[in-house]
Design brief:
The protein is of the alpha+beta class. It folds into 2 domains: about 5-165, Fructose-1,6-Bisphosphatase, subunit A, domain 1 (Fructose-1,6-Bisphosphatase, Chain A, domain 1), CATH 3.30.540; about 175-290, D-Maltodextrin-Binding Protein, domain 2 (3-Layer(aba) Sandwich). Helices cover about 30% and strands about 25% of the residues. The strands form 3 sheets. The chain has a 9-stranded mixed beta sheet with strand order 1-5-4-6-7-8-9-10-11, with helices on both faces. A 5-stranded mixed beta sheet has the order 13-12-14-16-15, with helices on both faces. Strands 2-3 form a two-stranded antiparallel sheet. The chain is globular, with a radius of gyration of 18 Å.
């Protein structure tokens, strides 16, 4: 099957009668994934590969199992009468109720796979729900940080929450005191560090783009950037959470006008305000010009 082609998960198409309770669905997924992580503990147990995912990366067996949990919940949602298309890192594009459905669920079942494999706590579930195939169409964003047991949630024009409490992108006001770098291969990170010398006080690497965006949303990071291009599944939920909390987010240094399609790639940057974002973007641009 060619990448991007919608394949049917069920033969019967159903029209949506009401919006699903996405928050409850995400919480059920988290509970099931938590059981999986407890059952599959240890680096050797988690270092089992299962081939290549539709997103183009080697897939761990634990990635596959996490995605199975997500898709089991998506199938239950569809059986209740909602038609949608899923865009997932491992399976690619899957139709639940017909390729013509205008609802899209963008899934990264395990953002931070390397962390999860190495038993590093910072990895997450990221799910976004959109009414179109553009980043600006995302209406609901959910990120669960398994390391800290923190739940980030946002709905468009309704703000963002952390464990049910209002989330605001407000730091101490010291400029770029802490900046997060993701996709942090050494050869890609060195130009970023050089560009931020004298402009940022400390750098942090989490290993999960979704969590890094949520850290900006909560004022834990003053800014974040990716040192290489990422996919929609990595950022779709986190970018809404950050923006609803009041942070500034851009893709490819220009705005939010990018695709949710799995084969799309773009740089992501975010900061507490536009002034801080300008410095972060300059560092990102410097890294790209350096050929990384």
């Amino acid at each position: 099957m060619a990448r991007g082609q919608i394949r049917e998960a069920h033969p019967r198409a159903r029209s949506a009668t009401k919006q699903p309770d996405w928050l409850s669905s995400c919480r059920r997924i988290v509970a099931a994934q938590r059981e999986l992580f407890e059952a599959q503990s240890g680096i050797a147990t988690r270092t089992v590969y299962a081939g290549m995912g539709e997103g183009g990366d080697r897939t761990l067996a634990i990635d596959h199992h996490c995605e199975e949990i997500v898709f089991s919940e998506l199938e239950a949602i569809h059986r209740q009468g909602t038609a949608f298309n899923a865009i997932s890192e491992e399976r690619g594009n899957v139709s639940f109720g017909g390729a013509g459905a205008d609802l899209f669920v963008v899934v990264d079942p395990l953002d931070g796979s390397l962390n999860a494999r190495r038993m590093i706590p910072s990895h997450s579930l990221s799910i976004a729900v959109a009414t179109g195939l553009g980043m600006t169409d995302v209406e609901t964003g959910y990120v669960y940080d398994f390391g800290s047991s923190e739940e980030y949630f946002a709905q468009r024009d309704q703000g963002a929450t952390l464990n049910g409490r209002e989330l605001r992108a407000e730091g101490p006001g010291f400029g770029l005191e802490v900046v997060g770098i993701e996709s942090a291969k050494p050869e890609r990170t060195i130009p970023v560090l050089a560009a931020l010398e004298g402009k940022a006080y400390r750098m942090r690497v989490l290993g999960s783009i979704a969590i890094a965006l949520c850290y900006v949303a909560g004022g834990r990071f003053d800014g974040m950037l990716t040192s290489r291009r990422c996919r929609s599944v990595d950022a779709a939920a986190g970018q809404l959470i950050a923006r609803e909390a009041g942070a500034a987010v851009v893709f490819d240094r220009s705005g939010l006008d990018v695709s949710l399609a799995l084969d799309a790639r773009y740089h992501v940057a975010a900061a507490l305000d536009r002034g801080l974002l300008a410095t972060v973007l300059a560092a990102q641009e410097h890294a790209e010009e350096a050929g990384t």
